[in-house]
Amino acid sequence: MKHLLFAVLLAGGAAWAQAPSPSPAASAEVPPAAATTAAALPAAGAVRSQNIFDVKPDASADPGYAGQTNGERARVQPGNNAPMWRQVGQGVTGYSSLPVTQAPEAGNLIQRFVQYPGSRFTNAGEAWREVRNRWIIPYGAALLGITLLALAIFYFAKGPMGHAPADGPGRRIERFTPFERAAHWSNAIAFCTLALSGIVMAFGKFFLLPVLGPTLFGWLAYALKNVHNFMGPLFAVSLAVIILTFVKDNIATMADWIWLKKGGGMLGGGDEEVPSHRFNAGEKGMFWWGITIPGVFVVLSGLVLDKLIPGWGLLRGEMHIAHMVHATLAVWMMALLLGHIYMGTIGMRGAYKAMKTGYVSETWAHEHHALWAQDIRDGKIPAQRSSEERPGTAAAQTAAAARSTP
Q: In a designed cystine with 204, which of 84, 156, 200, 377 is the match (CB 3.0 to 4.6 A)?
């Protein structure tokens, strides 16, 4: 070991002795100032880094330090861009070369602070996320679940309403014309498609993603998103037709107040319904508060989200508000229309067949809409409103007899 250490020291001494010593003449040719300048200047084409000795360490003691602009801060603390990023966080819009008409928020990285209903006072994007994730999603799912549970309890407690079948014996009365049925089914198919696709997009990650996996669920959500976007205009058109077609029979009358006062006869122990006209107060309430009013706002907000209204949907704040309105009212409509679907299928005998064929028996009309049936008997309302005459109706039998008479 001693021999190895001695050999290393001997080799190091030999290398030091052979190193050339600097020439005094060469040292005299370079003045001290030039040597300092040459050391300070970077090589040609290089990037000069900030000299730490140019930074004032006590700059933060200045009374106006917190209010300095980015340019003022760069003079006392080069490289410190805190003022710029503070403005970015406050929602200040910077410069962008993109045209404002096409990208009005291109220079804005973080939105200004707002407080939406149910959110903290924070930037608009975070506020929207809080409203969606803390209110719309959980309470929307709860509302739909409670509605389904209530309908199930009501069905097992009361069973289907009514006794007379829609196609029972007696005179046939046209309840819905072919045009009304076409408008209804077009709107119903569009709404159910939108509702199912919306449920998958809003709640699917909670009950479908664990089953299908991310790949299949991603493809399904993407496909349903496009179906949702293309089905929206059909719903908008059919909704307008529905409103214009049925509005005249959904104006409130004094009979509706009596119906509401007695709860439509559904809450008591008896089976007798409260007399009503063509549509009772519950159906009229569904028309106004479950279809017309929320439907108009759902359509308008959906058109904004699809950027189909010129001048709307270009700002993120507009999209936030449109989405919150769209999602909230869509869940509201789904909850109410679940009740409508229930009453139109298993909740009332003959209701589905009335919308399918357009005709009901006079007994059914008297049982469920006594005032409407009385108006038909008194001749105030025709029993056959469309030009098509269904076989078996009194008008059809009369016309057939007239044609067979020589």
A: 200
